[in-house]
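Our preliminary data section would be incomplete without showing what the modeling component actually yields. Below, a chain of 145 amino acids is followed by its predicted structure, encoded as tokens that our downstream tools consume directly.
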Amino acid sequence: MSIEIEPHIIRKYSELIKLPTFKERFEYLRLDGQVGEATFGFDRYANQKFYRSEEWKRIRNQIIMRDNGCDLGLDGYEIYGKILIHHMNPISLKDIESASGYLLNPEYLICVTHDTHNAIHYGDDSFLAAEVPERRKNDTCPWKH
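Predicted structure:
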């Protein structure tokens, strides 16, 4: 099942969490290679300054706690390495300069792994981890089947 999302639609956490599967959440966020209007280029200093700010560090910690450190905020997809906080709607230098409401609002942020982040930006689900298999009683004890 593929979810059709218009590029100009504002993606929201409150909508994302209604989607029950990892694949549906990924499809909701996927950008199909549209990394955003600007990737900061020579203005990367602004991006780096923002991500080192105390207000970003505070909201980052809040998002990790809200999402239980899970990829796309989905239980069962715990992140054991570095946790990235993804802006669900791509940001630009203009957003940073104007202190856009998208920057620090939890409604537009989600926990992801590095691979999930790349998959979202480049629309390539080959970056994604395999689906977590459904567990069954005694599934790890072959002699109890």
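The longest strand covers residues 84-87. Strands lie at 84-87, 109-112. Preliminary results of this kind motivate Aim 1 of the renewal.
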